[in-house]
Every structure is written in C-alpha cells, then in structure tokens.
Amino acid sequence: MKNLLKKILNAKTRRRILEFLNRSWCFICRKLPLRNTVLFFTIRADGRLLDNAKAVYEAYDGKKVIFAHMLPHSNKIKLFAYYYLLTSKVIVTDDYVRYMRAIKLREGQKLFQIWHACGAFKKIALDAPSKLNAAEEKATHSQYSAVAVTSEHCCKFYAGAFGVSEDICRPIGLPRTDKLLFDATKMREGILKKYPQFKDKYIYLYCPTFREENGTHKVYDPKIDWSSLSDAMSEDELLIIRRHPLMNYSLVDGLYNNIIDLSDESTLALTAACDVIITDYSSVIYDACLLGVPSVFYCPDYKDYERGFYLKFPDDLPGELVTDSSDLLCQIRKTKENPPAERIEKFISEQMEACDGHSTERAVAIIKNWM
Predict the structure, then answer these.
(1) Phi, psi of 110 (to 5 degrees)
(2) pLDDT band at 4; cut points 50, 70, 90
(3) Can you give the pTM of this predicted structure?
(4) Residue 25, CA distances (Å) to 9, 143, 183, 240, 329 in order
(5) Angle at CA 35, nearest 5°, toward 28 and 163?
(6) Domains of the chain
C-alpha cells in the first residue's frame, strides 16, 4: 500500500498530506492534559543521553522521560516527538530542537537549553553559517525559557546567537563539568586499566572537530604525514585520536602502533587520561583547562575557517597555534614540558567561572522551580 501511494501521489502532494497530518496531530496533542513531567530531548545519540542531559536526568528525582533519536526522524518518530514536546511541562535539551519552528509551546511549558559545548568559542546558531535562514534559526531558539552558560562573560554571546534576551542566559555552569572535576582520577584510571599498554606513556590526545562549507559538512584532511609522525615519536609517546561524532570517516591512512583511533571512548575520560590535548576549534579545550591539561591548537586551515569565533583567535587561546604539521610534535613536547599555566588560568576565569562542581544542582533547582 505504501509503495502504491508513492506511485500515485507525487512528492509535493505527499509532503502536503504529511504536513496536514502533522498539524492535525499537533492540534490533538495540544488538547491533551499537560503532564507534570520533564522531557529530556536530544538528537545527539540514539536511545541514550549524553553528558549534560545525562547528569541532570540522573540528579532529577521527579517524573521524567527520554526522547533520544538522531536525525533524520521517521514519520513515526516525529509523531512521538510532537506528542512529548506538547504534553511535557518542562523540556530539557542539549542541541537544536527543529520542531520548535513548527509549534508554539503551551502556557505553563518551559524549554531549558543546556548547550552541549562550554564557553563562547566558535560562533553558533544565528552567528554562524547555516543551511537555515535567519528566520528559521530564530524560530528554533526563540522559545527558550533558560539557557545554561558557563560564565557571566558568555551570556551576551549566547543571547545574540539564540536571539534571546541576556536575562534568559543563566551562568550556572554546565553539568558535564561536575563529573570531570570530581571523577577525573577515576576516569583516568579506567582508561589505563582498559588499555594497560598506555601505562608509562606520554599520551597526546588529538580531537579535531568537523568542517563545514556553506552550512554543509565536508570531509576534513588534517594534512598530517602519519607515517613520518609515527617514526618521529619516541617509544614513550602515544597519539590517540578522538574524532568528532559527525566525522564518520578515518583520519589516519594506515595502521601504527603509536597512533590509535579511540573515537568510541568517552572524550571526557580520554581528556582526563592525556598529558597534552591537540585540537583545532573544538570546545574540548574547556574540559582540558579545567583539568589543567595543556592544549596545542593545530589549525592548518586557520585562514580559511569560515565558522568564526567569539574570542580573539589565536591571541586568547590557552595554548600555542600550529599551522604546519612539521612543527606539531615539537610544539606538543614544548607544551608538555612548559604548560602555559597563566594563559590557562585566565581562560578559565573568563570563560568558565561558574563551573565549580555544582552546576548540576543549579540546573535541577531551575527545573524544580518550574515544576
């Protein structure tokens, strides 16, 4: 029957029918009682919550439900999304909720954005290139009741990016950093227990982020001669690669004993276990700074990176910038021997002053106040 309908109806007609059915379903959902429930809504993983949302979910002791489905969503999943979004009193999310463009929250509902990244580093939402136009971006974010940020300094940037007033932005810190501060030793020991061959090694963690061109993801070439790098590393040095979740392709062109891709492991745990972190435009630098792990910024495409920054790049970075891979290992070693402690301390005080180990408590308090 489904295939028959596809043959009879053209794409435009099918789309109109689906839009009508979605509107009708939303109308029905709006007539249902508002449930005294907290909905944890994420598109960052299937069937589970990550980092911030997970921490708040575990700490909140009231009625709660999880909607965790990566995009794209099937028509069936969309029906569940609209139902939960229109019948839950409080919605907690950690990324875009595209459905907000199509629905208006009911009276008494609250939408809490606990953005997945710390600080104000890369430009996001209205401030960054996107496949969405400005009206679509604004519609996605305009209904936030509160936005968690990591410092007072960051409020103005998130307010501008989401098109909301500054008083909506709450400098309560990010819940994911609580675990990092309290469980760093435990996480490090967990990695070393799982990979005993890492013991007595200097661990360098490479965490590149994804690249975009005109709002579309593209394959990133880090311009590293992996064979030469492997040969240049000493026996007590190890490079671990942790790709961004959107980078579903290998960065390394071969197999090396001292260069290992562990992208299935927790970024937090790997950060806790490493001696130096190498990244480009990833917010992983915030986790590293909290742990006192020094950073090196390897950005061969620095001149062409179109996303833009809120801070002054590279002057405000808590580490040195490298643009040529031939200089990378030398800078990593220099950073390991002489970490830029003052730059790290300044970066934390400006960007992460609210991350004191009690961010989850404050997030839960906001939710309970709404309930």
Answers:
(1) -130, 140
(2) low
(3) 0.83
(4) 22, 21, 44, 48, 57
(5) 80
(6) 32-173+356-370 (3.40.50.11820), 177-351 (3.40.50.12580)
